[in-house]
């Protein structure tokens, strides 16, 4: 009899497994349908020996000291400030848009925040009510910069025009009047020194934690006894798609190793105007690894395949509310993570959500044991 069955060995599931095992002495079974732990943050050394991310770049950044200190228990860190360039009009220009972007694109020599602000004011279009991703951008930087940097990229990434997406999508990408070319400005910006997978291995290395890979929830839910459940997969799948499928965007990756030390000047180059792929990642920028070869990932967005990103549209939010009501009615089940709560979370936000969930579990069940679960035939 396991105290907990945790579905998914990504950040949400692994953090909760570690907390439940080390802080409560609970017995935990973690399952994952893939053949590895670490979820989408999984990294590995490829055939050439280059450390790469199997599911595209994962850049750790947070303003939460609590999240950073918690993860520091399981890894040393490598300082890394992420920088992104976009290929626009034949030039590689900084993203988010900053003073350098504007000067290079327009052949200007703006030298202060105030000058850039004044220039952007001449470009901006008044929007009476900001509702969509398009509204966010054109009201700030105008139609031309929107077309060059945002519209094509967003259409590739999400499969719909920015005018059909919630404002939260492009609101995540600021516009700067300074020359700051860092993609993130968080207080803590680091990469796990030995990679994400090693961090997860340490997190899950406990006598009370058992891991089963290549295992789906439906294969074990009625055969392995457990008292309570933590589910980190798609919430609509848990309920048998009772109200229909929640829309997700998927990704496809093409990994390429080149026989040269470097390929591009920064870790990620975006392609908002050209190419079928959205971006190209070169991992040695992220990891600091020294190697005579380099590995790249070409990233393609897709409408089908593994669910990666909840699609932020009003009708999808309404559909999710139906599943949220079902989830709230479940006893002894916690839904945690991006897919289970149909929200776009950064890695640190998922860790924070998992730690908060553990605190709620502690409040609800302060002592080990407690009410026996009603999940799965064997749990009876």
Automatic annotation (TrEMBL):
The lineage of its organism: Bacteria, Pseudomonadati, Pseudomonadota, Alphaproteobacteria, Acetobacterales. It is an enzyme of class 5 (isomerase). InterPro entries: UDP-GALP_mutase, UDP-GalPyranose_mutase_C. This is UDP-galactopyranose mutase. It holds the Pfam family GLF. Its cofactor is FAD. Keywords: FAD, Flavoprotein, Isomerase. Its EC number is 5.4.99.9. It comes from the Bacteria. Residues 148-344 form the UDP-galactopyranose mutase C-terminal domain. NCBIfam families: UDP-GALP_mutase. Belongs to the UDP-galactopyranose/dTDP-fucopyranose mutase family.
């Amino acid at each position: 009899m396991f105290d907990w069955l945790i579905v998914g060995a990504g950040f949400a599931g692994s953090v909760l497994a570690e907390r439940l095992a080390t802080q409560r002495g609970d017995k935990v079974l973690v399952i994952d349908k893939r053949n590895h732990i670490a979820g989408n943050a999984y990294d590995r050394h490829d055939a050439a020996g280059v450390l790469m991310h199997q599911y595209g770049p994962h850049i750790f950044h947070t303003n939460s000291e609590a999240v950073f200190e918690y993860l520091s228990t399981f890894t040393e860190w490598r300082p890394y400030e992420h920088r992104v360039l976009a290929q626009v009009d034949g030039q590689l220009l900084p993203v988010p848009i900053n003073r350098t972007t504007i000067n290079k694109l327009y052949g200007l020599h703006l030298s202060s925040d105030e000058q850039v602000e004044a220039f952007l004011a001449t470009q901006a279009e008044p929007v009476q009510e900001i509702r969509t991703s398009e509204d966010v951008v054109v009201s700030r930087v105008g139609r031309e910069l929107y077309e060059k940097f945002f519209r094509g990229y967003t259409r590739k990434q999400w499969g719909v025009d920015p005018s059909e997406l919630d404002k939260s999508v492009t609101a995540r990408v600021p516009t700067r009047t300074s020359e700051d070319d860092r993609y993130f400005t968080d207080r803590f910006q680091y990469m796990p020194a030995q990679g994400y997978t090693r961090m997860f291995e340490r997190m899950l290395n406990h006598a009370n934690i058992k891991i089963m890979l290549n295992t789906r929830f439906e294969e074990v839910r009625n055969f392995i006894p457990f008292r309570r459940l933590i589910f980190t997969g798609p919430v609509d799948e848990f309920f048998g798609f009772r109200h229909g499928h929640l829309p997700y965007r998927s990704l496809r990756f093409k990994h390429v190793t080149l026989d040269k030390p470097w390929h591009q000047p920064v870790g990620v180059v975006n392609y908002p105007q050209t190419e079928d792929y959205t971006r190209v990642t070169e991992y040695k920028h992220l990891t600091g690894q020294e190697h005579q070869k380099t590995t790249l990932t070409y990233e393609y967005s897709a409408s089908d395949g593994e669910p990666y990103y909840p699609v932020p549209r009003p009708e999808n939010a309404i559909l999710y509310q139906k599943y949220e009501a079902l989830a709230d009615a479940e006893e002894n089940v916690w839904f945690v993570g991006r897919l289970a709560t149909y929200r776009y979370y950064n890695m640190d936000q998922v860790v924070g959500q998992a730690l908060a969930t553990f605190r709620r579990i502690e409040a609800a069940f302060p002592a080990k044991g407690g009410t026996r679960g009603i999940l799965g035939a064997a749990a009876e």
